[in-house]
């Protein structure tokens, strides 16, 4: 069984608060921001990962939908985890579509 870890940024190791509802005007999602510039969001069901990716990219682009749609894989870093909302802990993604997923994205300079 994978070891649970407190919610922590994979890029700068900052400990992060529980994801909150974010309404940016163009998207509604549950996530947050890291001081290093990374953003994170969750998919509570684990079944909407394509939508989660697009919404998290849009969040990383500060709501600029055109910019987020033109990004290629070389334009950002991405990490995915299984997430436990009750304990605010993560484990490395199991590859299973079951359960809550958490996605981190940081744009490359």
Main attributes of the structure:
2 helices; 109 residues; alpha+beta
List the helices and strands and how they pair.
Layout (H helix, E strand, L loop, with lengths): L4 E2 L13 E4 L4 E6 L5 E5 L5 H12 L4 H6 L5 E9 L4 E4 L8 E7 L2
Antiparallel strand pairs: 1-6, 2-3, 3-4, 4-7, 5-6, 5-7
> How many helices in DSSP terms?
2
Q: Specify the biggest β-sheet.
A: 7 strands, antiparallel
Strand fraction: 25-35%
- Alpha-carbon Rg, integer: 13 Å
Q: How are the strands of the biggest sheet laid out side by side? A: 1-6-5-7-4-3-2
* Helicity level: 10-25%
The figure for the number of domains is 1
The unreliable regions are none
Summarize the structure.
The chain is of the alpha+beta class and 109 residues long. It has one domain.
Structure description:
The N and C termini lie far apart (36 Å). The protein has helices at 49-60, 65-70, and strands spanning 5-6, 20-23, 28-33, 39-43, 76-84, 89-92, 101-107. A 7-stranded antiparallel beta sheet has the order 1-6-5-7-4-3-2, with helices on one face. It is α+β, with helices and mostly antiparallel strands and 109 residues long. The protein is globular and about 35 Å long. The chain has one domain (5-107). The longest helix is centred in the middle third of the chain and has 12 residues, at 49-60. Helices cover 17% and strands 34% of the residues.
């Amino acid at each position: 069984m994978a070891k649970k870890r407190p919610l922590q940024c994979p890029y700068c190791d900052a400990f992060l608060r529980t994801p909150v509802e974010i309404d940016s005007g163009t998207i509604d999602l549950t996530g947050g921001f890291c001081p290093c510039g990374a953003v994170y969001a969750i998919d509570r069901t684990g079944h909407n990962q394509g939508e989660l990716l697009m919404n998290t990219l849009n969040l990383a682009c500060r709501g600029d939908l055109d910019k987020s749609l033109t990004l290629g894989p070389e334009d950002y870093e991405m990490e995915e985890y299984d997430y436990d909302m009750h304990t605010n802990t993560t484990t490395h993604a199991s590859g299973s579509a079951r359960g809550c997923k958490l996605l981190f994205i940081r744009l490359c300079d």
